[in-house]
């Protein structure tokens, strides 16, 4: 089992992209937890920072520590409950921009079940017997020699799904400290994964939000 990990300080600020009386849309920086960690040293996170100015803010979904990009932050209980229902009904769609190792020939899909790797937490593993169904579509955007920029579209939302699915097709995400080989890990200063688009229905106004937040890489 992995040893407790103390998260290095994140000096980048959370960027608020939209706000009304009911919810926020924010851009989370890479290197910042979405929620507090178990260790006292890992209390700094997106939601505790937001709650300094918005005390009623709650967490409707999460991004990994090293993943940057779009998140919704409900400001009241009813909005939180409605967004949760939208997630459960798969009425919310998300896409991520990533830089992958290698030259990917064409668009495709990855359909491989994922389970927790209990002996090596927080890592996940592909497991036909115990894994939960997991599906990711990907679209090639650009090719640059030994790397490919892709748009990843997860249908399911398993932990580390995009990281492990990319590795399983032989194209790990650059800068991934959990699943990339040494060359791919050393090829970038951070995990090259960013939540780029988020489409959902505003719980109270009924307006369809279709937000785009370009990656910083």
UniProtKB/TrEMBL annotation:
Residues 23-166 form the Pseudouridine synthase RsuA/RluA-like domain. The lineage of its organism: Bacteria, Pseudomonadati, Pseudomonadota, Gammaproteobacteria, Cellvibrionales. This is tRNA pseudouridine32 synthase/23S rRNA pseudouridine746 synthase. InterPro entries: PsdUridine_synth_cat_dom_sf, PsdUridine_synth_RsuA/RluA, RluA_PseudoU_synthase. Keywords: Isomerase, tRNA processing. It comes from Sinobacterium caligoides. Coiled coil: none annotated. Belongs to the pseudouridine synthase RluA family. GO terms for molecular function: catalytic activity, acting on RNA; pseudouridine synthase activity; RNA binding.
């Amino acid at each position: 089992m992995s040893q407790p990990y103390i998260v290095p300080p994140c000096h980048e600020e959370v960027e608020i992209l939209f706000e009304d009386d009911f919810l926020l849309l924010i851009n989370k920086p890479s290197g910042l937890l979405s929620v507090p960690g178990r260790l006292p040293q890992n209390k700094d996170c997106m939601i505790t920072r937001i709650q300094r100015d918005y005390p009623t803010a709650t967490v409707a979904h999460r991004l990994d520590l090293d993943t940057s990009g779009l998140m919704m932050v409900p400001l009241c209980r009813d909005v939180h409950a409605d967004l949760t229902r939208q997630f459960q009904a798969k009425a919310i769609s998300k896409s991520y921009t990533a830089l992958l190792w290698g030259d990917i020939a064409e668009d495709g899909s990855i359909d491989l079940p994922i389970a927790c790797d209990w002996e090596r937490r927080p890592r996940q593993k592909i497991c036909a017997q115990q894994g939960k169904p997991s599906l990711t579509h990907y679209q090639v955007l650009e090719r640059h020699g030994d790397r490919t920029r892709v748009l990843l579209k997860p249908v399911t939302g398993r932990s580390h799904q995009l990281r492990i699915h990319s590795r399983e097709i032989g194209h790990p995400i650059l800068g991934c400290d959990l699943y990339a080989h040494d060359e791919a890990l050393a090829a970038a200063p951070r995990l090259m994964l960013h939540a780029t688009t988020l489409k959902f229905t505003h719980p109270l106004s009924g307006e369809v939000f279709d937000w785009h937040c370009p990656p910083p890489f």
